[in-house]
Amino acid sequence: MKHIKTFTKIKNQKSKLLLTFAFCILIFSFASCMPGGTQAAQGWAGIALHDDVLYTGSIDGKVIAVNATARELEWSYAISMPSTGMSCSQTSRPTPIYGTPAVFQDLCYVAAYSGRVYALNIITGRERWVYPKEGYMGAIVASPVVAGDTIYVSSSDGKVHALDATYGELKWSSEPLGEKLWITPAIEGDTIYVSTFEGYIYSLSTKDLSLLPWTFKANVGFVSSPVIYQDTIFVGAFDNNLYAIKIGESEPIWRFCGGEWFWATPVVKDGIVYAGCLDGKIYAINAKTGDLEWEFDTGSPIVSSPVWDGDLLIVASESGDIYVFDTHSEPENKVMMPAKTVPIDALIRGSLCVQDSTIYVRAQDNCLYALDIEKGWISWRLPLNTKGES
After folding, report:
1. Second label for 195, Cα 20 to 30 Å away, from 179, 235, 319, 390?
2. Whole-prediction pTM value?
């Protein structure tokens, strides 16, 4: 399509300024060396849970499997950066892992910032396959998505790639959709939806990643991954607005303005959108009207998406406080107070995981935490530093 090939020529000045500002911030966050060239970047991998085993990425570039009941390491697998192009020296170094692993059947899928996707046996941690076997895709920041027998992943080459889940062979790649794709695609039926920094939402076929007729164009770039609820896409943008966009339409249903970006992907339940914002607030917004139902100010940016434990909404602030909201409670003057607050005294940027009233957190101190929701305290803490790998 013509507009894809020429999208860089039609950005307005405001979008360019916002994108430049965004990339300045994100480059510092995702660069493989910090100022001074001596410290490796720290990823913020989320947690996947399967059969009582937690899968995540450590700060020292390893995929970690932890038995949640035994509270001990099952295995670890090291991933290294390429020696040139993405690091500050000519030697190999650990790669950050920013996305949440995906577990399907007997494999754990991990997308690394170095530009490769790994499939690891969930019991042994041994590599089943890696794609590509030689060379690298663009840097991968988003989480992989499993749908049927296919793994979908977006990368900094601007494309969405579809891999065979069993053998790791490339099925299809989309045409370039933007300069970089750092978002996790949303899948609804046989359609994939992708939001871009250039302000597009593209719809692609899951069959071959070809572009479908509907494309949405905003006047500003999108910063969050999209989420879909009742044929409506909810996504955050660089203008500090959360957008509600009906699939197939050319204008948003509504915009809700926050104090900063809605960086984290929102979650939707029972007609309410729950969106964490970099202004430190969690907003509950009516999905149909865009009206504010309630809010709460955590006092620190919210980088990771909220999660659910039944009707309890779990929200993490970057500063390390975990908030538990009873969504059946009545707010007072549009302010909802948390039922419990549990601090862990460590930065939180990765997605949380919840099961059986236990919240699992991989924090920036490279430790795995288990928090008891009912008691409101830390049940256990496990350092993820490892000396070897399987």
Report:
1. 319
2. 0.88
Q: What residue type is 357 in one-letter code?
A: S
- pLDDT value at residue 41: 52
Cα–Cα separations (whole angstroms), residue 263 to 132, 260, 305, 355, 360: 29, 9, 9, 25, 21
State the amino acid at position 148 in one-letter form: G
Question: Whole-angstrom Cα distance, residue 195 to residue 216?
Answer: 9
Q: How many CB atoms lie within 10 A of CB 345?
A: 11
Buried b (16+ CB within 10 A) or exposed e, 34-67: eeeeeebbbbbbbbbbbeebbbbbbbbbbbbbbe
Alpha carbon 315 to its chain centroid, in Å, reads 15
**CA distance to 60, 296, 301, 302, per residue, from 280 (Å):** 28, 8, 4, 6
Spatial separation of the C-alpha atoms in residues 140 and 99, rounded to whole Å: 8
The answer to whether the CB of 341 falls within 8 A of the CB of 323 is: yes
- Rounded Cα–Cα distance for residues 244 and 327 (Å): 21
Q: Which H or E run contains 19?
A: helix 13-30
Lowest model confidence (mean pLDDT) among 84-98, 168-182, 203-217, 254-268 = 84-98
d(CA 200, CA 1) in angstroms, rounded, equals 13
Phi, psi torsion values for 7, nearest 5 degrees: -65, -30
